[in-house]
Structure formats: C-alpha cells, structure tokens
Design goal:
It is a single chain. By secondary structure, this protein is an alpha+beta fold. About 40% of the residues lie in helices and about 25% in strands. The chain has a 4-stranded mixed sheet. A two-stranded antiparallel sheet has the order 1-2. A hairpin with a 2-residue loop joins strand 1 and strand 2. Helix 5 runs parallel beside helix 8. The longest helix is centred in the middle third of the chain and has 15 residues. It is elongated and about 80 Å long. The two termini are about 50 Å apart. This is Reverse transcriptase domain-containing protein. GO terms for molecular function: aspartic-type endopeptidase activity; endonuclease activity; RNA-directed DNA polymerase activity. Keywords: Aspartyl protease, Endonuclease, Hydrolase, Nuclease, Nucleotidyltransferase, Protease, RNA-directed DNA polymerase, Transferase. InterPro entries: DNA/RNA_pol_sf, Rev_trsase/Diguanyl_cyclase, RT_dom, RT_RNaseH, Viral_Replic_Matur_Polypro.
C-alpha cells in the first residue's frame, strides 16, 4: 500500500500549526539563535537597532538566486501569457473545424476552429474552447463510448454555431466513424447516434 505523505501543509488538522511552527523554527534556526528574528507560524519578524542593518538582514532572509533555469522559466511564462491564442468571430459562410478529444476516465475537451483570412493570410483561428470532467458513471465508459459521448456533448453545446453550418470533425478515435453507423444494443450509444445524425 505504501506511505501517504503530504506535499503541502494541510491546515485544519489538529497538529498542523505546531508542525508548521517547528518547520519554520528549523529553517530559520541560525537567525533565531543570533537574536534578530522571531518566527510565529508564517509571520517573520526582523528587529534591529538601525534601518541600514534592518534592510541588510531582510536581504539575508529574502534571498532569491536568479539561475539560468529560473530566468528561462520566467521568460517562458511571460511569452505564454502574452501570446495566448486570440479568439476570432465566426463567419457562417466558411466551414468550421471541430476538434474533439476524450481523456479516458478523465474528461472531454473540444475546440471549434475556422480558417479565415487575417492580415491577408489564411489562418486557422480558435472560436471557442469547451471542456468538462466526466462524472462517476461516465468515467466507467470504454474508450470508444467516451469518444462518442465527446462528439455528442460537443454538438449539443455548440449547436448555435454548428446547426445548419458545414463543419468537419477531427478526432484521434478512428473507430468513431464506424461506431456511428453500426447497430448497437447500448442505449446510450443508440441515443447519441440518433442525436448526432439529426
């Protein structure tokens, strides 16, 4: 079975505060023994005679080493936050592309795209993203049934874009096309087949 170990402090447990206090005392043991710092749970108090000493000791406690790895991570985060995909407005005269994917026993995710001319160049842009977690009974579905649910749910949620429009569905489930045309005794699949064909 193994051992269960917390990776963060679970506040609300009876001894959590005492354990956290002990860890803080251990981390700042040297500074506490030198007599210029007091730690109370998550509050760190630094007290010295002069302002200059105070600032110097604050830098000693709040050190931050800027390594190449941290700099690269910071730049990557900045890039991702400033270059997020911009959603475009739908043009109902152009065909849509519906990308669907079901993460087995986890959730459903869909993205509705469209290829439009942006700044004189054809560009595939995102109109919307939708996703949701599977409930307990859906998490027990097989892979093919989950993919079929994914398509059914996408068509249901995005009907205001797709109803009467031309669109293609892109999926990583090669069996989905044959699943929609086969005779099945599964009531869920039968209901989804009928709804999808409408």
């Amino acid at each position: 079975m193994g051992i269960y170990e917390y990776t963060r402090m679970p506040f609300g447990i009876k001894n959590a505060r005492a354990h956290f206090q002990r860890m803080m005392d251990t981390i700042f043991q040297e500074e506490i023994l030198e007599g210029w710092m007091v730690v109370y749970i998550d509050d760190i108090i630094i007290y010295l005679e002069t302002w200059e000493d105070h600032v110097q000791y604050i830098y000693r406690v709040l050190i931050l080493e800027i390594t190449k790895e941290r700099r690269d991570a910071y730049e990557r985060i900045k890039y991702e936050l400033t270059n997020a995909p911009v959603l475009i407005l739908p043009d109902f005269k152009i065909p849509f592309k519906l990308y669907i994917n079901a993460a087995f026993s986890q959730g459903l995710g869909e993205a509705l795209h469209q290829r439009q001319i942006v700044d004189g160049e054809p560009t595939e842009g995102v109109i919307c993203y939708i996703s949701r977690q599977l409930n307990d009974s859906e998490a027990r579905y097989g892979a093919n049934q989950t993919e079929c649910l994914c398509l059914f749910w996408a068509l249901e949620k995005l009907h205001y874009y797709l109803e009467g429009a031309v669109f293609e569905v892109y999926t990583d489930c090669t069996a989905l096309k044959s699943l929609l045309n086969m005779n099945t005794a599964n009531r869920h699949m039968l209901r989804w087949q009928i709804a999808i064909q409408e």
